[in-house]
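#struct-pred
JK: can someone run the complex with magnesium ion? inputs below
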Amino acid sequence: MLVVQKYGGTSVGDLDRIRNVARRIARYRDEGHDVVVVVSAMAGETDRLLKLAYNLVEEPSPRELDMLVSTGEQVSSALLAMALNAMGYSAKALLAFQIPIKTDELFGKARIRDVATARLKEEIANGNILIIAGFQGITDSGDITTLGRGGSDTTAVAIAAALGADVCEIFTDVDGVYTADPRIVPKARKIEKISYEEMLELASMGAKVLEIRSVEFAKIYGVPVHVRSSFTDEPGTMVVEEDESMEKVLVSGVAYNRNEARISLYGVPDRPGLAAKIFGTIADAGIVVDMIIQTGRPDGRADMTFTVPKTDYKATLKLVDKLAPELSIEKIEGDEDIAKVSIVGAGMRAHPGVAAKMFQVLADHGINIHMISTSEIKVSCVIDEKYTELAVRALHEAFGLDRAPEEETL
Ligand code: ADP
Ligand code: ASP
Ligand code: MG
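RT: done, structure tokens with the ligand placed:
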């Protein structure tokens, strides 16, 4: 079997844990499997590096920032390979440029374009355990990029897809995907099996247990993903194609995201092409807009509200401020203290009334809804950030997620 394993920051957080991970990898090897490992930086390291840069200058240049933050994974991959070598296993650490893992040039949020497999296959054939630095890539012109926070998941799944691995195991500090973040919902339950589509929605709605692009890759290439704990041998959660049992579950999980900010443009002239101009300008800056609401007004103008990642908030405000005179936008306003709470479930397709129930639950707790968006299997509401925990716990309980799945009712 060819197994790709990814170990997150906590799992390689200190030398004892690195030894522990090395022993687990060795065990797979002893069982006769080929193992390719992807590691994150040691816990806290990426934050520490980012802080260094931002304490030095207000707006670090993106290229140099990636040079800096990509180093965390170089350290952990080298240490893990050393630990294995010392145990008598032949292991080799590899950085993205040595493979290479090619990306586009969007520093800080680069997208993987191609994973070359020649060297990987050769090293595996030579009996080496490969320890690959996650989170990083290389552009055609040889510059180092990073994939965005949590990006080692994406490295792992992309490598599993490229190599046609039998499974991609994501080892983390929880023992699977839960019905909600167990850190804020103590009653959350572990989900045994979840569809790519539901996982995609949960991840894009903020459940950071898997980075969203890793789920996209898994879905496109049909890579079975197993999310599990690096501290136990218990099976975790399988992320796989949807099957009939999943359709029956109305709501599978609740997610929240506190990393977005809202921007409102008031009195935008109601003319064809204006939305294209505004959102085209924002997209050209590499900023991903999430929710968008446009409402017409009796005076022939429109109000537009949308959300962007908090890290892009100031840059987006600058862009729209610059556009305002030319487009004769009346007023621009924004709010960083928002959160998005979402419920996700394949069963929603067949059941009306789920959204209404969500709004009622929030209303019963005195929580005002600022924005709403829906997809076939998801409903999201933007609320004041201070109500995040309350909303997530209330929804978790109201949709019966505190109990076993059979008992769920609308
Ligand atoms: P790693 O460093 O291993 O990549 P992360 O911190 O990125 O780990 O992801 C694991 C964390 O994701 C958990 O500690 C948990 O708090 C959080 N999380 C959020 N939503 C969920 C969920 N639905 N199920 C499990 N964990 C979740
Ligand atoms: N080290 C990077 C981060 O902290 C990537 C990852 O851990 O997946 O975001
Ligand atoms: Mg992560």
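RT: quick notes.
The chain has two domains: 2-173, 244-410.
The chain has a mean pLDDT of 95.
JK: thanks, will look after standup
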